[in-house]
Amino acid sequence: MFFFMTTSNSQVLKLLGKLCQISAIFGGLILVALALMTLASVIGRAFFSSPIQGDIELVQLGCAVCVACFLPYTQYQRANIIVDFFTDKCSDNTKQFLDGFGTLLIGLCFSLLAWRLAVGGLVNKENGETSMLMSIPVWIPYLLMVPGFTLTALVSFAQSIQLLFSKNPESV
Question: Which positions fall inside the Tripartite ATP-independent periplasmic transporters DctQ component domain (predicted)?
């Protein structure tokens, strides 16, 4: 937290924004690869009676990683769904405080999720747990999701600091 207070928060957010873009690009590449694999499997199933073995399993594991890669960019853009029905009549300062508090809670939740994903991945590695059809070690997607969840938490914390300590609601 001290780092965010001593360094210009806008510089931190710009750096985090670049990392979010890289994460989203990585997620997009995974999504394209999954789409191409699904296409190949459907064509193989329809024309050659030979689908890609375990394609559903690969899509499930890949989509989990893909979503984790897109979450930081979504948070950075503040594109999450916000229910503002109850705060419509509140002042701008109150809305900003509530947004900052909510963003702080998101950061705490994603920190907890990143921690538990890391622990779960390491436990799955120790136990040698694999997927049913292809015997893919399930710890790999678990640990591939950790950076996305961690980055989402960092973006949330930086945004909450900006929201809670900015004097001008329009600048946030």
Answer: 34-164
Tokens encoding 169: 């609601």
Q: Are 169 and 92 contacting, i.e. CB atoms less than 8 angstroms apart?
A: yes
Q: What is the pLDDT of residues 62-115, one digit of tens each?
A: 999 999 999 999 999 998 887 777 888 899 899 899 999 999 999 999 999 999
What does the DSSP assignment read for the chain? Answer: -HHHHHS-HHHHHHHHHHHHHHHHHHHHHHHHHHHHHHHHHHHHHHHHS-PPTTHHHHHHHHHHHHHHHHHHHHHHTT-S----TTTTTS-HHHHHHHHHHHHHHHHHHHHHHHHHHHHHHHHHHHHT-B-TTT--BTHHHHHHHHHHHHHHHHHHHHHHHHHHH-S-GGG-
Instruction: Tell me the pLDDT band of 59, cut-offs 50, 70 and 90.
Output: very high
pTM exceeds 0.85 for this model: yes
Q: Which domain holds residue 129?
A: 2-171
Q: What domain count does the chain have?
A: 1
- Find where tokens 């999720």 sit: 113
